[in-house]
Amino acid sequence: MKGIQGHYNSCYMDSTLFGLFACSSVLDSLLFMATHRQEAAIQTTLLQQIVNPLRRYGFVPSCNVMKLRKQLQQEGYSDHTFATDEKDPEEFLTLVVQKILQLDPLLKLTAEGKVQENSCYQIFLDQKHTLVLPTVQQLFEHSLHWSGLALAEIPSCLILQMPRFGKNFKMFDKIIPSLELDISDILSESPRECVLCGELAGLACADCFTDPTFGRTGFKLFCLTCSEKVHLHPTRKAHQPSRVRLPKGYPQGARPPLPREKLQLFAVLCIETSHYVSFVRHGPRPQDWLFFDSMADREGDQDGYNIPQVQECPEVERYLQMSPAELACQLPREMEGVAKRLFCDASMYLYQSPSMCLYR
Which residues carry out catalysis? Predict the structure, then answer.
């Protein structure tokens, strides 16, 4: 009896809560921020009956989660099926984080000077993409490039929804987890390096994004000199590089190397046949992974109860260290332990910024 006990279609909520709070404090501000009286009851249940016992005793009974589900339903925040039916983690997060507790938006994106705010980011891809066995880094970059978006600021918590259609169809057979997400070239106002010479970049070329000359994927930034030379090539003369905006007050004479902004992966939510589970990183080493299933076993029939399970899964490290070619050859049914579920069934990736966590 470890983790959060599941009951009556609660796996989406159990896995989300375990992923967010078991080994990370990035959203602890939700638990202590000032709220109105109506919202305070939900916040108290979340803190005192779910997060505190999870961290202190390592176990939360199903009645505690059911109390939260009924509160969300009774207070009129959601439809009358919230305590009975299966939902999506995104629906639960949007309801609690955005609508009820009204935390400042976790994600701010910019497009043509306009800022968009949300709590999650759904990855969409151009139908002409050439990705076969992508990393999360590649998926995020491709999606932002195709949508013409950039990060307006460094998020303390970044929640990425993988490209899926419903609960069954997956766009990719496997997705490689990026343990670190480099967002340096995705920020709208940030000093960046020229991809060729390493000097301070002054121009970004969206048309060079998929040019194999500079790497198969990734944003391409150039200093003025390199950009001029690169775009003398007949295949690139029609490209239209855009100016890189620097933060106000950034010293003009600053020289690389420039610091890289990276987010750390701390949890992954996975779904297979309508059942959610989660993987959580509990340490800095590649083998420091926990697997959580709120309904891993059951005692009794209709009058019985579910038995949740938390287990170490160091076998994940073996697959993380494989080359893409090796990983592509791995048959899901033959993958060791629960690794298949991480690589083949990922639905949502959760990242945190170690530096921004201190301020939000």
Answer: 11, 275
The reply to whether 340 falls in a domain is no
Transcribe 35-71 into DSSP letters: --HHHHHHHHIIIIIIIHHHHHHSEE-HHHHHHHHHH
Calculate helix-pair angle for 11-21, 62-74, nearest 10 degrees.
Answer: 110
- Beta strand segments in 216-326, E: 220-222, 242-243, 262-272, 275-281, 289-299, 305-312
**Token digits for 316?**
């994940």
Starting at the earlier edge strand, list the strands of the sheet with 220-222: 220-222, 203-205, 242-243
Q: pLDDT, tens digit, for every residue of 109-150?
A: 998 889 999 999 999 988 778 788 999 999 999 999 999 999
d(CA 248, CA 1): 53
68 CB contacts (<8 Å, ≥6 apart)? 13, 42, 45, 46, 49, 50
Q: Are 349 and 160 in contact (CB under 8 A)?
A: yes
Residue 162 maps to a domain: no
Residue 196, in any domain of the structure? yes
| Cα 219 from chain centroid (whole Å) | 20
Cα–Cα distance for residue pair 198/168, rounded to 1 Å: 44
Tell me how far the alpha carbon of residue 240 is from its chain's centroid: 31
Q: What is the pLDDT of residues 251-288, one digit of tens each?
A: 766 676 777 899 999 999 999 888 999 999 999 888 99
Domain count, the chain: 1
Query: What phi, psi does 254 have (nearest 5°)?
Result: -65, 140
Answer yes or no: pTM beyond 0.90: yes
